[in-house]
Amino acid sequence: MNSPISSSDQTNSLQKQSEQTITAPESLQFALEPNDSRRLANLCGLLGQHLHQIEKHFAIEIRNRGNDFALLGERTATTTAAQLLRHLYAETASAELTPDEVHLALQTSGIEALMEQLNTPFETNRTADLDATESNNSGVTLIRTKKCTIKPRGANQLGYVKAVQTNDINFGIGPAGTGKTYLAVACAVEALLKDQIERILLVRPAVEAGEKLGFLPGDLAQKVDPYLRPLYDALFEMLGFDTVGKLMERGVIEVAPLAFMRGRTLNNSFVILDESQNTTREQMKMFLTRIGFGTTAIITGDPTQIDLPRGMASGLRHAVEVLEGVPGISFTHFSSKDVVRHPIVMRIVEAYDAFEKLNPNNNQHNQAS
Predict the structure, then answer these.
(1) CA 173 to mean position of chain CA atoms
(2) Which percentage of the chain shows pLDDT scores above 70?
(3) CA 335 – CA 352 distance, rounded (Å)
(4) What does residue 231 show for φ and ψ, rounded to 5 degrees?
């Protein structure tokens, strides 16, 4: 004899069915046109590597047979992933996709914005959303150098490059991995190749970041030299080792510790001040007043990585407060969402930011500034 089902059991059963209905993944189906096996293989990557990246990022499942795709997951995630797949498929018409390219596309601010648009029907808004995504990547100012062509990624990088092209002094502020220094070098190289400037100066404050400069061999310029390695690497990539070596011998590319800048006036130059968070207020003012006619300056820095002695205020933070709104000076603020390195770098930056907000007393340099 079957035991009677209690009302509570019926309620629990209905609740479980309701939860299963709510959490059941939705399926979004579409086809990529034209049906080109070569481009589809490029889109999917070796052993489906590119699709796995997208699945992991959006927490969805991607199934495809030829150019017919089905995305399973939360509606907003599948909608956004579909837009990204369409965009990447368009890219395959003229470029070979790599895992790095897919990662950079996933980091694009337009994609992140779409993720925030909850409950957006795919069919109704597909054209508008696709146009919005494409607009972030079309008409982009390409930076052309001797060895490669660089395309800014996302709205912040694009705004940064456009600001550099229209302002005399430009600040790029944000965490590591956002491309602020790399793009600064790219803009400088392009201006040199176009004969818009006569030389490039790479400047850095001689502040010790845990290591003692005095133990390094050579004079002060040679001691600071290893700290400029990211700038050198970018120059080598864009111009080649031989060209960079010859330009440095001729003084067209110059490395100058910040302390050596006093008393100079820089005309027809492109000056990059890297690690500017480690300048004092006086050093920053001294540097900014070196700018002469025909010169463009880019000041890059990360206010969360200050190596100044305790109690000494950062010249970068002070400059942001003093110069905000001054004509001819631009400020581009990058965040963890703009990180274009390995995805874990973005998560590391976000974790540190969250920790410092919860434990402000642990950051003594920020307090002092």
Answers:
(1) 11
(2) 75
(3) 12
(4) -70, -40
